[in-house]
Amino acid sequence: MFRNKNIALLTASGIIFLTGTSAYCIITQQESSISPTILETATGAQQEEIQNNPLFDTTLVHEISIDMTPETYQEMIQAYQSDGEKEYFPVNITIDGTLLKNVWIRLKGNSTLREILWGSGSMDGPPPWGNTDFPALPAWMWSGTQGSGMNPGMIAWGNQGGWITGDTESENPPYLLKLDEYVEGQNYQGITKFALRLGSDITKLSEPVAFEIHSELWQIVPETSFAKVSLGDNVDELYSLSEIIDDTYIEKYFWTDEGYLFKAGNFVNFIYVGDDASEYEEDFELKMGDSGRAYKKLIALMDFVSNSSDVDFAEDLWSYIDQDSFITMIALDELLHNTDSFSGMGSNYYLYYSLSEEKFYILSWDQNLAIIGMGGGKWWNRAENMSGSWAFGSGRQAPSDFVNMPFMGAGGGSLGQNTQNDLKDRFFANEAFSQMYNTRLEALRTQIFGANGLGIQTVERLSSVVETYIQKTGLIETKDYETAKQKFLSFFEDSEK
């Protein structure tokens, strides 16, 4: 499978999107899915072990055991429930039989985490607007959201008519693990941190399938795999593992440890708000690079996006952001119904500024609600009973095609959030750019959907590994898994998605 730094090099050299079977031919020529930076530091025997059984190998289900007492687990949960803090706790973990001591673990996520800990609910104040089915949430979750675009029912969960996560069906929360925080240099197969994610159903296929498709189509995305996770007295559960985007990730995929990396917050505006860096720091957290220089580049991007003339925007956009990866990203967000994204709600992405190319890349991450999560990218269940203000905010009326509302296009994508994305809006307002997008969209649709498309192939390949495992272990009822898997197959069978 094609996952290495050559993606960035190919893009930088002007080799852009590949259509038809040619992409697959080139992809199969790649020698390894393992980062050369990991292999270069290993002995011959270690290299063979890494290549045969990497942490992100999708041909097996890994087994991870986390040694945490019930008391410590409750302390971690209660810390988050009381004030929203995701505190780290030291634990010992075992990955496929290898013991790692003094590993940091904390809770991870936002909407998925809240659904698991509170069940169905809303983020705009207890009780959620007269609906007695929703439990009241702690004040820290909703205080300060009034007037900020966080509308009643905006973050609605579970089977109460919400669309944010569908039906997670999980009894455990997602986690982030850091292996080298207490023990310097500690790693597992060259990896020092990774996420344990859930998804919108028991298969945990959403993110692995979405990222496999991205990777096959030359996008830079995190590696993933599957694991059975055991933690104390908690019920064993299937998780998806995910690579973390940080300086190591940048070095792996871009072959450099230089540049500026920003992590976007949740539901953030993509607009110019002045030349004061402090106005951007909360929405775009710097993860890599010199702060002064980094924010100057970010502000220059936002100034261009918001304030350039239409002529300058059309002529100079691709000198600010990478053209090929951007168009493919937003097209894939549309096709895979990845609404919790840059293209959708203004969440779950990083900005990386390459010093050598002098432009930004927008990097996707956290797609555990893609494909069938969030109601399959559409408003669902009680949408027909919602008022316009329930979903769209005071004074805003729901469109006539509310239930099947797309999220792409100029002005689209907020899905109830009053976020502003000048880059996306101006891109789609430009006729030539819109045509480029539509051409890419249809080319990708042809590759991904249908009986012989990349989507069904990927679902079948990844699910076969999990099916073999659960048949041996009983981790999930085979019938239940098959039923859930069918939703993914049905999604990709429909070429009109």
Topology:
Blueprint: H1 6-12, H2 22-27, H3 36-39, H4 44-52, E1 61-67, H5 70-83, E2 89-95, E3 98-107, H6 111-118, H7 139-142, E4 175-178, E5 193-197, H8 206-216, E6 224-231, E7 237-243, H9 247-254, E8 260-264, H10 278-281, E9 284-288, H11 291-307, H12 310-316, H13 323-335, E10 349-354, E11 359-364, H14 388-392, H15 422-429, H16 431-448, H17 454-473, H18 478-493
Parallel strand pairs: 1-6
Antiparallel strand pairs: 1-2, 2-3, 3-4, 4-5, 5-7, 6-7, 8-9, 8-10, 10-11
Summarize the structure.
The protein is α+β, with helices and mostly antiparallel strands and 497 residues long. It has helices at residues 6-12, 22-27, 36-39, 44-52, 70-83, 111-118, 139-142, 206-216, 247-254, 278-281, 291-307, 310-316, 323-335, 388-392, 422-429, 431-448, 454-473, 478-493; strands at 61-67, 89-95, 98-107, 175-178, 193-197, 224-231, 237-243, 260-264, 284-288, 349-354, 359-364.
Give a written overview of the molecule.
This protein has 497 residues and is α+β, with helices and mostly antiparallel strands. The protein contains 18 helices and eleven strands. The chain has helices at 6-12, 22-27, 36-39, 44-52, 70-83, 111-118, 139-142, 206-216, 247-254, 278-281, 291-307, 310-316, 323-335, 388-392, 422-429, 431-448, 454-473, 478-493; strands at residues 61-67, 89-95, 98-107, 175-178, 193-197, 224-231, 237-243, 260-264, 284-288, 349-354, 359-364. Strands 1-2-3-4-5-7-6 form a seven-stranded mixed β-barrel. The chain has a four-stranded antiparallel beta sheet with strand order 9-8-10-11, with helices on both faces. A hairpin with a 4-residue loop joins strand 10 and strand 11 (359-364). Helix 8 crosses helix 17, helix 13 crosses helix 16 and helix 17 packs antiparallel against helix 18 (478-493). The longest helix has 20 residues, at 454-473. The chain is globular.
